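Subject: design request, 100 residues
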């Protein structure tokens, strides 16, 4: 069975003066590695010089052991603080999952 990668792109709500990326990164580091089946977690602001982010400010990439681990992650109690923070502070969110 292959692993699964979960990608989340977030455009933070607001006027651009408040950056929610750092607190989001801290929540991700605190909570997501505790979830069984999570193999790696990466998050952060774009450092691209191309400027092709399409308005998105922050990205989260979570690599799971398999699709079953991804499915268990969504309702997991350690995922909830991260999901709530993103939902409460975002204008737009895109989620893309792939088997790799």
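Subject: RE: design request

Done. Sequence follows.
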């Amino acid at each position: 069975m292959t692993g699964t990668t979960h990608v989340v792109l977030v455009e933070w709500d607001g006027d651009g003066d408040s950056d929610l990326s750092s607190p989001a990164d801290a929540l991700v580091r605190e909570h997501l590695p505790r979830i069984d089946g999570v193999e790696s977690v990466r998050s952060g602001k774009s450092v691209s010089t191309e400027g092709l982010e399409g308005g998105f400010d922050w990205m989260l990439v979570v690599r799971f052991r398999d699709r079953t681990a991804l499915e268990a992650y969504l309702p997991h109690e350690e995922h909830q603080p991260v999901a709530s923070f993103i939902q409460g502070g975002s204008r737009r969110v895109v989620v893309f999952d792939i088997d790799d």
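The mean pLDDT is 94.
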